[in-house]
């Protein structure tokens, strides 16, 4: 059976989006090097996941054997997203940084796939480790585009980067621990600064792909 790469875009911009263009380039490089992979693609702005509401919460925390038709309907999209997430072996996210965090559409996606008894178990009797991830052996690449620069580890704006810690925590909670980040910045400055940052991101992508050859 072929392995699968799930590519998720979360920028509302199209042609002007650096996270889209760079994640597409990463995808092309990956599939060129690993033709044994099949591609799954999801554009969160074409098929937006619903935000969690009262009906979703009631359904998610009702045991499957006791769910009504309304519960099932409330979780229909979430169930599909979780199934797709498990089907993939590797993940590729294209993410713009918005106000030091992620776009709300990506947060909605994450809220739909972090599900008790689907992607994690809650065992309150286990006082040492009540939460147990159910996603095993997956890897993730995150291509981030920022308006400024200096958000990476050890750089001047690292304390303002709430995107990377949030993604590491959320996906790590369900079991995705191997997450590689690739940054491009300087969109607000443009010109040579932007171009240099894009080229650095491309070199980083090539290094990440080659490291798996």
TrEMBL record:
MF annotations from Gene Ontology: electron transfer activity; FMN binding; oxidoreductase activity, acting on NAD(P)H as acceptor; oxidoreductase activity, acting on NAD(P)H, quinone or similar compound as acceptor
Enzyme Commission number(s): 1.6.5.-, 1.7.1.17
Cofactor binding note: Binds 1 FMN per subunit.
Boundaries of every Flavodoxin-like fold domain copy: 3-207
Subunit (UniProt): Homodimer.
Family to which this protein belongs: Belongs to the azoreductase type 1 family.
Name under which the protein is recorded: FMN dependent NADH:quinone oxidoreductase
Gene: azoR
